[in-house]
Design the sequence.
């Protein structure tokens, strides 16, 4: 059984920064893509950023230039550095990973709240 655990959410003023972390644990043979998604109240879950095992990244247009995704393969951890935060970034942020455990599966974290407000 594998799981993802996020940390680092909270309340921040507009223009501020936060860093999210997500650690994978359990019986994991390999981690392919890892990423972050978010869901604001009344909206569908949307992709924020993804990173593959080789380091290639992809970002939503709304966060390009402000957010940076990175990963530590040895620590089975993915990070999301969020700078210049805006009120519209307020959402629950979910970690995602496609991992080879007992088969190839998609895993989701429990979510962490990010609130950008003055």
Sequence:
């Amino acid at each position: 059984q594998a799981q993802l655990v996020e940390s680092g959410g909270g309340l921040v003023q507009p223009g501020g920064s936060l860093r999210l972390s997500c650690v994978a644990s359990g019986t994991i043979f390999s981690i392919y893509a890892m990423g972050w998604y978010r869901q604001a109240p009344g909206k569908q879950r949307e992709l924020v950023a993804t990173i593959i095992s080789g380091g290639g990244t992809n970002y939503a247009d709304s966060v390009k230039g402000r957010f940076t995704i990175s990963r530590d393969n040895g620590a089975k951890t993915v990070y999301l550095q969020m700078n210049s935060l805006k009120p519209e970034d307020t959402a629950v942020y979910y970690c995602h990973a496609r991992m080879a455990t007992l088969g190839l599966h998609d895993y989701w974290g429990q979510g962490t709240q990010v609130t950008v407000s003055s």
